[in-house]
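ingest -> fold -> write
write: protein_1
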Amino acid sequence: MILPGDPAPTFTQKCSTNWGHYSFDMAAGKYNILVFVPAVQMCLTSKITDTLKDLLKLKKSVPIEIFIVTTSPQDEKLKSDDFYYIYDLDCNVHNIFGINIEDITCVITDPMLRIKEVLPQHAIAYDIIKHFLKNTIPNQNVPIPALLLTDILEEEFCHALIHYYHHNNPTPSGVLTKNAHGSTIEKVDTFFKRRYDCKIQNQNLIKGLQARIIRRVVPEIRKAFQCTVTGMDRMIVSCYDAAYKGHFSPHRDNTVEGAKHRLFAISINLNDTFEGGELTFPEFSSQRFCPPAGGALIFSSALLHAVQPVTKGKRYACLPFAFNEESLNTARLQSG
């Protein structure tokens, strides 16, 4: 059985989402209420149902998400606009949480996906859960495990990259995801992400970018994170345009095949003539980060992060990833 303070197990399971499944690692940034039941119609008592309805009213003031985790095949077609049904027919979610499939149990996690409360059936009451949520310390100023560096790229080099972008046919940026067969594909989803990318193929620019990162970023990664990176990939120049409502919804950078070797994201701003476009880390706080032109924000590829909408102008950025031989080997082993 999981206990308060434990990291919540992550899972991917069939769900009432439009795409048919849910990856729980994407639930970070909110307080999550998971109600485990053997069967919805048999086990959701009026008390629990009323509790869930009352909790929905808290969404305006507290970032919460509600999941009903059921093992009954009869529940597999249930859907709701208010919460998610997790169809745990193979009992995998119950098993990794240590929940008896015959019990009704409520589990609450914090925005970092750490267990905060485990409530048996008799304690699943609105007043108890509301009191917990209202008295939880808000995550407004939690330190972010990220490195903010200035003076990575000179102004002239930034201008050269922006010039290259405008003269080499940028295209809509896709999102790496899995298809129905579990294979990694790149899909353009303008609801989730609106950005244009241009792959850098000019060898002088590639070598210049690599040299500056090796000289100015790699030593700081080693010092701050005690990790030596030896390689870079995804040499691109990107643009978040206010006219296109440029943004990127919360995501992680190392969750699918072809990306699992990535250790650190390096987000380098090439200009400062824009508004919005800040990076946020919803697992930790609501703080927004925006390096100056030529500066970079470096962070683990495993962290949930988002790019806020650009509201004025265009944000140009260079967005490589860093890795090493150990991360490459680990990714190969995970891929079988």
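write: protein_2
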Amino acid sequence: MMTPEMLTGLSTDHLVTLAGNHRLQFNATKAFLAMQKDAAKAGFKLQPASSFRDFTRQQTIWNEKFRGQRPVLDDHNQPLNISAMGEGELCEAILRWSALPGASRHHWGTELDVYDPFLLPQGKKLLLEPWEYEDGGYFEPLTHWLTENMSHYDFYRPYTRHDAGVAYEPWHISYWPISHEAERLFDGNVLLNAWQGRDIAGIDWLRNNLSYLFEKYIKIAD
């Protein structure tokens, strides 16, 4: 069973090396490697762009966005002017694209952001924006292959709705046999305990509105 530390990115005891600096849980690693092998037979070089991310990394992303040291993007991937935003508006703008520290699914060792470097045009940088994966985008063929095949390896996309709290992420896949259990175990108390004694920008507003934030940005709709 996953511990609170594993759920919140404060432990790496549940992880094994996938490739390079990428880490996942053992069964998720086996499943991804099997899918990667079959993707290669179909002509794709399926690669992780991101996998496990620890609490400290997510904390840095969050705090830099809150404090204006990193851009906060709108639904059209354009930088927002956060100078006139109140705390609540700013927190929700960040949550559209970035999880709270301790609440990222990437803490669990079940999540990957994937792409095919051979489909990325020379000189172009991977942005992880929806248009890259949609019709006419660089990775459209990979998107279709994953849609048709990833369930055979127990992967699915958790963020598929444009109208949900979290933005549509066609690059993000999750290993369901473990992630659905992590969803069951993860709650507000686990998150609040992970925040104890740590620098979390906007923490007072976040604490006061945590139930609402859980429903809109953390809990995945069935």
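write: annotation protein_2
The mean pLDDT is 95.
DSSP finds ten helices and six strands in the chain.
pipeline exit 0
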